[in-house]
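BUG: 3D viewer hangs when loading the predicted structure for this chain

Environment: internal workstation, default settings.
Expected: structure renders.
Actual: progress bar stalls at 90%.

Input used:
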Amino acid sequence: MQTFTKRTEIPAPADELFDWHARAGAFERLTPAWERVRVIEHTGGIRDGARVVVRIEPFGPIGLNWELAHRDYIAGKQFVDRQVSGPFAGENIASARWTDAMKQRIRDSRVKGTRLLADSLAKLKQKPEVFVCASALGSYGNRGDEVVDETSPPGSSAEFLPPVCEEWEAATLPTREAGIRVVNLRFGVVLSPKGGALEKMLLPFQLGGGGILGDGKQWMSWVALDDAVGAIQHVLATDSLEGPTNAVSPHPVKNAEYTSTLGKVLWRPTILPMPAFAARLAFGQMADELLLSSTRVKPTKLEATNYRFRFPELEPALRHLLGK
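Structure tokens produced before the viewer hung:
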């Protein structure tokens, strides 16, 4: 999870400012009159366990609810709003075992939010020139050693992620029909020590507990955070790009190579593997589709439009990201 910090200095005593936020109606007082936002439910003030549900209707009657929960309350000093559901992040596919309810949240957070945004953009009188929508390599499913690119057919409908990604990308159709250029960036595993897979791996690897997953032969298509951002900038500025576009390094690696390279960069042994049966026991279907799945993807469209990767090779990328 990425954390963004914004600081604002307000010329008022801290205790008075905190009391102002603690009084009923603070959210309404903070919301400008022109914003199409209204509170539809608010319970418990700002203390731990309190919640607020806000209705956002930026383009008329079409809208969605944004639910926040308050936590980490310290009287006179702080309170934290945590999004429970809403427009600012999709459900984390690797945060919990995939129950039926979890799968539905994963699907809805991607498909419904994208469709709402696409419908709203399509109805604007002054439309944007381009709509860049995140997608994922889950579209391809488990492909073994097969090399796939944007022209490859989707993965098996028997898997969970390929149909979700298809629906996710299809939700952008209203913008296409409205004449807006749409790019569906299919991100690989984005490497950053501040979030995602790499952050989760760092502590066990630093403690010498790293090792291959399964047999280590599954392909991992990755991209350094710098190139994930670079790909977004590139597709925004490249009018010829539209539709599915793979945001991955041109040099995918097998899990065994990734494991040994991360161990090398951290100066740690990587001798404690997680067998496939153990991964399935711990994570269920998520293990097969995320940890053990093999996807060997090429960024054909980015290369064809002369995108220059900052970190095409894994070891330099990890050394840059980890300051090694």
